[in-house]
Write a structure and sequence with these properties.
This is mevalonate kinase. By secondary structure, the protein is α+β, with helices and mostly antiparallel strands. The chain is built from nine helices and 13 strands.
């Protein structure tokens, strides 16, 4: 058994299809080059420790847990993942310290919890010298996601495990695409939101206006076909324009906010191809697709109005082991 293993997994953004994907439509999703890092360290004794910034919990050998309420609420799903791996692959109890260091903003629609879960499964299995397939890693990460979000679509664990860009359709259809180079600008509103409440809000919209939603869904399906063809052809300008239309549809459905709308409008003033909210809405982030040679300049101009702005590329690689000792 190794003494230390460190793994990272990427964040994600949804380019097209938030909420519509819950109702059977396809979504276009890509990994981005923000990563969550998890380090697993073998320690003396039989306690399990988890630490993420100021959050901390320890499960003593007698089964008791030391943690404040906030730490326990956040770290309990990850402790369950550790327990599952250890019970399945270790015959005698061991001590493990888990250190989480994520660059991915929490509650921002970028898949932070899934990236941490996948990186944890990868790091701990590497520490135990157990070879898990990507499908096994994804399956293990889905359990914390279900505990955190209720009924997640499954997009986040898949994209953070595999990386790249793909088309997803429920219940479990994935199509990995040939990747074209693409830079995105991400603007974080700084407002955290709860996915479950926003999914419910969108569902309420579909139930209150079934005929309108039927028309919107038909329009979205046509929009998606053209957007996918545009991406595959390297036509980022058309892709960006259609992303903006999709964003307007989400705004009509009531999952945007005035702050997100202001960020979208400020981005569009920079002569970019398109901008929209990403994730469930209600806060979180806006993504903007700029002319590729102007990404850094546009991001710098947006920083004059919004503090949390960065340029991200779309990596091919998903979860990976960074270090073992």
């Amino acid at each position: 058994m190794k003494r230390l293993a460190r793994a990272t997994a990427p964040a994600k953004v949804i380019l097209l299809g938030e909420h519509f994907v819950v109702h059977g439509c396809r979504a276009l999703v890509t990994a981005i080059d923000l990563r969550a890092e998890v380090t697993c360290i073998r320690v003396e004794g039989k306690a399990i420790e988890l630490r993420s910034g100021k959050l901390f919990c320890i499960r003593r050998p007698d089964g008791g847990v030391d943690a404040d309420e906030r730490s326990w609420k956040t770290l309990k799903p990850l402790l369950s993942l550790v327990d599952e791996l250890l019970s399945e692959y270790v015959s005698n109890a061991i001590g493990v310290r888990v250190e989480i260091d994520s660059r991915i903003p929490k509650g921002a629609g970028l898949g932070s919890s899934a990236a941490v879960s996948v990186a944890l499964a990868k790091a701990l299995s590497s520490l135990l010298e157990v070879e898990l397939s990507n499908e096994e890693l994804k399956r293990m990460a889905m359990k914390p996601e279900q505990e955190i979000h209720g009924m997640p679509s499954g997009i986040d664990p898949h994209i953070t495990t595999y990386g790249g860009i793909l088309v997803f359709q429920r219940p479990n259809s994935w199509e990995e695409l040939e990747q074209n180079p693409m830079k995105l600008i991400i603007i974080n509103s700084g407002r955290r939101r709860r996915t479950g409440k926003l999914v419910e809000r969108f569902r309420n919209f579909t139930e209150a206006y079934p005929e309108l939603f039927y028309d919107m869904r038909s329009l979205y399906d046509r929009l998606f076909e053209e957007a996918l063809s545009s991406y595959l052809a390297g036509d980022l300008e058309t892709l960006g324009r259609l992303m903006a239309v999709n964003g307007f549809m989400l705004r009509l459905a009531g999952v945007s906010t005035p702050e997100l709308d202001r960020i979208v409008e400020a981005s569009m003033e920079k002569n970019i191809y398109g901008a929209k909210l990403t994730g469930a809405g209600g806060g979180g982030c806006v993504i903007a697709l700029p002319k590729q040679d102007e990404a850094s300049r546009v991001a710098e101009e947006l920083r004059q109005r919004f503090q949390r702005v960065w340029v991200s590329e779309c990596p091919r690689e998903g979860v990976r082991v960074e270090e073992t000792l």
